[in-house]
Design goal:
The protein has two helices and 13 strands; from the N terminus they run E-E-E-E-E-E-H-E-E-E-E-E-E-H-E. It has 185 residues and is α+β, with helices and mostly antiparallel strands. It folds into two domains: 73 residues, Outer Surface Protein A, domain 3; 84 residues, Outer Surface Protein A, domain 3 (Alpha-Beta Complex), CATH 3.90.930. The strands form four sheets. A four-stranded antiparallel beta sheet has the order 11-12-7-13, covered by helices on one side. It has a three-stranded antiparallel beta sheet with strand order 1-6-5. The protein has a three-stranded antiparallel beta sheet with strand order 2-3-4, covered by helices on one side.
Length: 185
Amino acid sequence: MSRIGRMPISLPKNVSVEIGKDNFVRVKGPKGELSQKFNRDMTISQENGEVNIARPTDLRHHKALHGLTRSLLNNMVVGVTTGFSRILEIQGVGYRAQLQGNDLQLQVGKSHDVVYPPPSKDMSFDVSRDGRTVTIHGIDKEAVGQLAAVIRMERPPEPYKGKGIRYQGEYVRAKAGKSGKGGKK
């Protein structure tokens, strides 16, 4: 069996899970509500404050779906209880971020400021005082990661000076610049 798929998901007291027709699952918690439709082959059951996922056969695609379904469902439960966050660091002279109401405004060396509104009411931004770190908060792990990737692509870190937007803790390998010895004589 799948090691991840067979682990039960324990539900906190303030979280409710509704399993509907065709494996449509709705999870409600203190931070909000998430819903998702899972593959019909998987059997999702709830008993004694735990959610269990079972697969019909040992075929390769059922094994893959078993772990995937469990991971996605667990992320939904964690999202509505504690939420997810992703931290971006901004490096470069004149590069900074600031909040404009609920929107994130970036100044990253373009002729205009780039503005990102939060894609849903469940997501929010925090900017440090110096404008060098941006934290994205939300209950949907996939949406938080996707928004962080889109913002990072606005100015990815370049390998010569290291300027740009990067994930916290991301290592950018620096390249050597030109090493021309002497010029024309």
